[in-house]
Amino acid sequence: MAPQRMPVTVTVNGSDHHLLVEPRHTLLDTLREDLRLTGTKKVCDMGNCGACTVHVDGLAVYSCLTLAVETDGHEVRTIEGVAPPDGLDPVQEAFIRMDAFQCGFCTPGQIMSLRALLDGNDDPTDDDIQTAVSGNLCRCGAYRNILRAGRLAADLQRARRESEVAR
Amino acid sequence: MSATMDVKIEDGKLALTEHEGVDGWDASTPMTAVGQPATRLEGIEKVTGSARYSYDVRLPGQLYAAVLRSPHPHARITRIDTSRAEALPGVHAVISSANTPQIPWFEDSFVFDTTVRYVGDEVAAVAAVSDDVAADALGLIEVEYERLPHVTELEAAIRPDAPKLRDSGNIAGEPTVYDRGDAVAAMAGADVVIDAVFTTQAAIHNSLEPHGCTVAWEGDELTVWASTQSVFTIREDVASGLGIPEHKVRVIKHHMGGGFGAKQVAWKNDIIAPLLAKRAGRPVQLMLDRHAENLASGNRPPTRQHVRFGARSDGTLVAIWADIHIGNGAYQVGGEASNVSGMYQSLYRCDDVHTESRTVLMNTGPAVAFRAPGHVESAWVIEQVMDELARRLDLDPVEIRRRNYSPIDQVEDKPYSLPDGLAYCYDRVTADFGWANPAPPAVAGSKRRGRGFAAHDWAAGSGHPPAYAFAKLNPDGGIDLVTGTQDIGTGTRTGLAQLAAEELGIGVDQVRVQLGDTASGPYSPVSSGSSTMASIGPAVRGAVADVRQQLLRLAAVKMEVAAERLTIVDGRISVIGTTDQSMTIAEVMEDVAPANLLGRGARGPNPSDVSIRTFGAQCVEVEVDTETGEVTVLRVSTAHDIGRIINPALVDSQIHGGITQGIGFALTEERVVDHRLGMVMNANLEEYKIPTMLDVPPISHAHVDVPDSVANITGAKGVGEPPLIPTAPAIANAIFDAVGIRVHDAPISRQRMLTLLAEHGQSAAPEVAR
């Protein structure tokens, strides 16, 4: 018999969700199956590849290694919650401009890892960028352009901040 | 010129030849859309998570499926009891050989066979309300097996006393033998002969989106959202497996999370999912988990290649001889062949060549084409042997290749469509890398540096008919382009939009491209062999040229000039050479709205008097740490004859991807099998090591960008596979340059490198475990 379900209240991309989940159910499956937020990808389902990276309380985590019950009372942000209402996040824009993806399946995870980096560091070094996504596998081999996109994203973010300050 | 259709009888059969009906672009044709680094049309979807992959389809009532797989490498199933699984709440269907008709699949076997031939072979399948419940149900299926002897090692499978997978033995079919001249006799005239055995490993594609599909029945009609490189192949095989007409099956693929060759055939999951959905009366999603993806969805076959190359003291080759074994695994699944022999016959000028190749069955997952199948494996050998010859004869590694240059396809006995293509690559890559410059200091502590070179050809990349496209010009001047090809992540959608924009004289943003749907798109072939752009691109040009002709007929009447005198620039129609009289496309179309103009394009034949190939060459610099055995690739330069470059940014991305996979193949990627147990020991992304961000050095692509105007009306050839081919041998040659050790067996793992360093007395490690 399936184990008993437990109540979980979690904020995802700013909306509260009241869920009943089995204790074994991962945050990844909760997002993809229950909330139908399929931007977060399932690839290895064991913490090897980073495709399922989301933010929990602002920290990048593997959602396949996070149980849904652990997120009770916490804030989750996924790729669907990154863009501002009127456009794209600097990381997203940089990925398009630098052709930092091919098939695009690892892209949400890469972007969430870099978003977490830039949330705490406006002016990262190449080492910072490479370390931030070193747990995100890309089988198409877009790494060099992901590095370029990381640099551009930081530039775009600083430029946006400066123009906001100027206003 | 206008589109034409030639029909004749050849060998008692109808032969249909169509033409695009438009003149080819040559090197001097001015271009505005083509050649630009346009960003991908699907960029916003892919960076916002809204791109819908087959794995992301969510339908009302959808179930999730899981497959029970054989734990044994070879066994007979004597009993299956699924009753406990069926009784589990949340389970809607369970199928196996016990309750499913025998549907033929892969040679003489069935979708659910009662003999299983490798660990991972399909035994039963379940559809349930969630992945978790489906997994629980698999655990409740009882299966009894009668174990059979197994063999999972390539050389062991060839021995006469090896356990047999088929009554006919473990060699599939007849050996493939090729002879040009007499290699054995000619070898006697060589001043130097290299006689060596090389091996390459089984490598796993490991596309990040696994194989699989989501399916839904509506009455007797089936829709399949498949993660595939060929919607039409899936349609044909699923329809035939289910015994229903093809028009009752619609296959859709909007986005795909990687394929690299492994998704060019229909796999058992493509038929299991509709069977489950039929039984459950609900839509079903069946995506493989990572473990199954590593076991049961294809691999690059391991090879053993025994070769002899003979050369004169000036470096010219007198004979090439190769005996090749290819470890196919349990089933031959079709698709693009792994032609390991090909490049021995074609890459260098040589009158006397012998190759023989045997495809070997063994109790491992079936092999399938993996990006440049066969060529990656043979380049590992040929390009190391050429390097070795150069060193024995004290020649520069590039110079020895120039001395053996062939401007003709020696197998087909025809000139290449671009005879200097490979020479351009030699020139561009060596200049870009600084091959002629003095090498930097080679020794620093335990580190040794070296440089290596390798080249290649690729048999596909020319594209071919049949392939079709429709173009629809809307009243507002925008175009819908519809074809049944698919964008497998390479940028096909964007490249085709650029071709359409160029042909009509409009912006790329005025083209919408609809791909990957058998219900709307006319036939287009499988996306394999680096052939997509060269196959479908000319058809797209033809379709848009058809529309353009109709548009200019309308404009000519309105503007009261002959249509031949009109041209279109930036969406504006004007008389050639004048600026006083002009109209926009939208202004012409407004008059006839809501009429559309419909164009049809068909890919024309390839020229019969030339051989169309792609070529490339790479230089790499590596560092070997003699203390740890670690090999670090420091930089790569590469050049490729791929014809016209339609989008330099997307081509560079393909180049990066190929080289990245080449680095993985050279250094870390290997399916490890415990031959006693017959089991794969590293069927996951933890222990199967693909390159990470930290493993890929700067890559410089020296564009050749010479349109191959003879090849087709776009001048473009394929790029997807070529950059992977020379990477591993270039790295191996650079290692030889660094430490003087020839590595015969791929991959060059740290353990292998350390062992070799110790054998050669070169290890700086205090103590090397042997």
Automatic annotation (TrEMBL), chain B:
Pfam families: Ald_Xan_dh_C, MoCoBD_1, MoCoBD_2. Its EC number is 1.17.1.4. InterPro entries: Ald_Oxase/Xan_DH_a/b, Ald_Oxase/Xan_DH_a/b_sf, Ald_Oxase/xanthine_DH-like, AldOxase/xan_DH_MoCoBD1, AldOxase/xan_DH_MoCoBD2, AldOxase/xan_DH_Mopterin-bd_sf. GO terms for molecular function: iron ion binding; xanthine dehydrogenase activity. The keyword Oxidoreductase applies. Residues 48-149 form the Aldehyde oxidase/xanthine dehydrogenase a/b hammerhead domain. SMART domains: Ald_Xan_dh_C. This is Xanthine dehydrogenase, molybdenum binding subunit.
